[in-house]
Specification:
By secondary structure, the chain is α+β, with helices and mostly antiparallel strands. It has 2 domains: 85 residues, Roll (SH3 type barrels); 37 residues, no CATH class. It is built from 2 helices and 6 strands, in the order αββββββα. The protein has a 6-stranded antiparallel beta sheet, with no helix packed on it. Strand 3 and strand 4 form a beta hairpin. The longest helix is centred in the N-terminal third of the chain and has 8 residues.
């Protein structure tokens, strides 16, 4: 499925393979890539989510700027010397994953979050209310949220 997508939607240079990290200036116009970052070891800036990719729209050698199309559809200009990973980001169907129960999330390291309103007054400043129309307040009486 992945290779058929790439053959329809991109034009790769013959000297690079999918998954290679290369300079944007070395790519052909129309190439697709992800993990755009300004240096090899830095955190990536664009197209980091599963299944996303950017498209190289144009190269301007005079000003050393490359125009890329982001997954949102916006076009931005970045420096020639930015790095990118060729291909499309993996794990496309991540949003379809069903966790099933809270215990599986706890095993992954996600702690459960309890609303302050559901707590007792000794545990949280918003705690202890029983469905009143008064707004939530700090221990000093100032309104913490919007008025209804």
């Amino acid at each position: 499925m992945f290779t058929s997508f790439l053959s329809k939607h991109s034009v790769f240079s013959t000297k690079y393979n999918i998954g290679n990290v290369v300079f944007i200036k070395n790519l052909d116009v129309g190439s697709i890539f992800y993990n755009v970052c300004n240096s090899y070891k830095n955190k990536s800036l664009y197209a980091r989510s599963p299944g996303t990719y950017c498209i190289l729209l144009g190269l301007d050698s005079l000003s050393s700027v490359a125009t890329i199309q982001l997954p949102s559809g916006d076009s931005i200009s970045v420096d020639f010397n930015f790095f990118a990973t060729l291909g499309r980001n993996s794990n496309i169907w991540r949003f379809k994953e069903i966790v099933g129960k809270a215990g599986r999330n706890v095993l992954r390291g996600f702690k459960p979050s309890v609303r302050g309103v559901a707590m007792n007054p000794v545990d949280h400043p918003h705690g202890g209310r029983t469905k009143t129309n008064s707004p939530e307040k700090t221990p000093w009486g100032k309104v913490t949220k919007y008025n209804k």
